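The passage that follows is intended for readers who have already worked through the single-chain material. We present the inputs for a multi-component assembly, then the predicted structure in tokenized form, and finally a short commentary. You are encouraged to pause after the input and sketch how you expect the pieces to fit together before reading on.
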Amino acid sequence: MSEEKETVYRKMLLVVREIPLGRVATYGQIAWIAGAASPRMAGYALGGLPADTDVPWQRVVNSKGGISPRGDPMATDRQRQMLVEEGILFQADGRIDLDRFGWDGPDPEWLEANDFTLLPWRPRS
DNA sequence: CACGTGACAACTC
DNA sequence: AGAGTTGCCACGT
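Having made your guess, compare it with the prediction:
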């Protein structure tokens, strides 16, 4: 797209913005789509977001469909509530059924328009 | 279920 | 320029 320096973090955040309302994606999925070397990178990228960001970070969960804990325990509750308000249903075990709410990823046109090339192999997963 | 292992980018001195 | 710091993972055994 541009000549600007697109960091891997920036690319992942771009992908997160594409997660539609009512769906969730996993860290590994985001990292893979953005070409990051490790799924952990997705978590790092989200961790640096400002409080008033427009990036729907709450729609990113771990591979089991659970909310990843972080420094502030309250953050987990807030994220869960945000998702509930978006229509996501949590199972009795506190996890989200990824078969029902998991995102399939960006449209092929979007990937091409943004110069994203899906790697044939998914980094560690 | 509790471990250990694999694997990084961006930022601040 | 380069070392040190800091972060919301996934999977196998």
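Commentary: Chain A has a mean pLDDT of 91. Residues 15 and 30 of chain A are 7 Å apart (CA to CA). How closely did your sketch match?
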